[in-house]
Amino acid sequence: MRIFRSEEKLSPEYVPPRLPHRERELGLLETFFSSYMAGRPAVSVRTLIVGSVGTGKTVLSKLFGRKLEEANNMARYIHINCRIHTTLSSILKKVVETLGAPIPARGLSPEELGSRIIDLLERKKMLLVVGLDEFDGFLRSDPKGVYTLLRLGEESAKESRISVIAISRNAEVLEEMDEGARGMFQAGVIYLEEYDYNQFSDIVEFRCSEAFYPGVMSEEAKSLVVDMASERGDARYAVELLWRAGKYAENEGAARVVPEHVRKAAASIYPSIRREALTYISRHERLLLLAAARQLLTSGKSYISSTELYQAYKVVCEEFGSAAKAYTRFWEHMQRLEDLGLIRVKIGKGETRGRKSFVTLPGIPASIMVREVSALLESGEGE
Ligand SMILES: Nc1ncnc2c1ncn2[C@@H]1O[C@H](COP(=O)(O)OP(=O)(O)O)[C@@H](O)[C@H]1O
Ligand SMILES: [Mg+2]
């Protein structure tokens, strides 16, 4: 069975041709750098992109870099990870290396190296934007270097051929800069908000359409990925879930990706099945958990309603020779299981009336849960 159309399109390095719900921010970058886009040197631009993990900072900056290079063949974008390149000297060496410039990096001070780069850009009429990802690493280990880099090329000419996009997940990064550096960024801060549920739906839809064959990713699995990702507000998690779920389906020879593949994917990312929690929950909580896991597994759904779960629980009670508790008691057990992180309950729209509770196993494959809990119930351990 063929699952992936282009598996590499779910790799962390891949930059998609568009970013749903980041069109405005991409447009902002293009506006900030409009001179460079048009091939004209201009006053140096310094932009700062701030957002939490998985808000698309890295990919946005890289996509802008690609647009810039497409718009003008004299413009270059170089993306540098400042967790690896933490000093000005290391960053400039990386620039020289990426440009393939005939500049001996050894034996030059960072300032000298900087002015050699400027000379080269002048001679070749090139324009350079440096994306400084994980900028905090640079700021922490070489704050003077930050200032030097920001001012590069300003002394010799008004028109600068080098500009900077700094990227940080730290909301306080501006405050950590000294006044000089802060002033240079202040006009150009772009904040990326966490994506919400609807935005994740569009993003997941789009990424699936690129990576999977049509119809391979079931709607149920897709919406489970959306739920899990929007809970964390993390697009990286979404992309990783898609890829891993696809791998599980592929390895099983399945024709489609279903919610159970997503649960397995989640468990493999955070192997957080809380075995110790299973050992100290009560017998009825175990019965309830077994019912939930079985129901999710056999129905192929990502969520089951609490009324459906109660019915399943009564069946399991009968099987294990226990009298089922009343609904209110059952609800208490459910809350306790949620507090322990063994199930997740969310409010959604019911089919017939009002809002309803739906239950899922967060990041725990139902099959593993069934096995573990059945074993405990049979042994009676810890009851
Ligand atoms: N708007 C979007 N559309 C499609 N994919 C996105 C979008 N935003 C982020 N991604 C994807 O989510 C993952 C995380 O994005 P990334 O730029 O690494 O986040 P950050 O750098 O903010 O932690 C990447 O695989 C990226 O391609
Ligand atoms: Mg990043």
Provide a descriptive summary of the structure in words.
There is one protein chain. The protein is α/β, with parallel strands linked by helices. It has 3 domains: 22-192, Rossmann fold, CATH 3.40.50.300; 195-269, Helicase, Ruva Protein, domain 3, CATH 1.10.8; 275-379, Arc Repressor Mutant, subunit A (Orthogonal Bundle), CATH 1.10.10. It is built from 18 helices and 8 strands. It has helices at residues 23-32, 34-37, 57-71, 88-99, 110-124, 135-141, 143-151, 173-176, 179-185, 197-211, 219-232, 235-252, 259-269, 275-280, 283-299, 306-319, 327-339, 366-379, and strands at residues 46-51, 75-81, 127-133, 162-168, 189-192, 304-305, 344-349, 355-360. The chain has a 5-stranded parallel β-sheet, sandwiched between helices. A 3-stranded antiparallel β-sheet has the order 6-8-7. Helix 11 runs antiparallel to helix 12 (235-252), helix 12 (235-252) packs across helix 13 and helix 15 packs across helix 16 (306-319). The chain is elongated. 40% of the residues are buried. The structure holds adenosine-5'-diphosphate and magnesium ion (MG). Adenosine-5'-diphosphate (ADP) is lined by residues 12, 16, 19-22, 51, 53-59, 203, 206-207, 235-236, 239. Adenosine-5'-diphosphate binds next to helix 3, helix 10 and helix 12.
How are the SSEs ordered, and which strands pair?
Elements: H1 23-32, H2 34-37, E1 46-51, H3 57-71, E2 75-81, H4 88-99, H5 110-124, E3 127-133, H6 135-141, H7 143-151, E4 162-168, H8 173-176, H9 179-185, E5 189-192, H10 197-211, H11 219-232, H12 235-252, H13 259-269, H14 275-280, H15 283-299, E6 304-305, H16 306-319, H17 327-339, E7 344-349, E8 355-360, H18 366-379
Parallel strand pairs: 1-4, 1-5, 2-3, 3-4
Antiparallel strand pairs: 6-8, 7-8
Helix pairs in contact: 1-3, 4-5, 6-7, 10-11, 10-12, 11-12, 11-13, 12-13, 15-16, 15-17, 15-18
The structure holds adenosine-5'-diphosphate and magnesium ion.
Magnesium ion is lined by residues 57-58, 133.
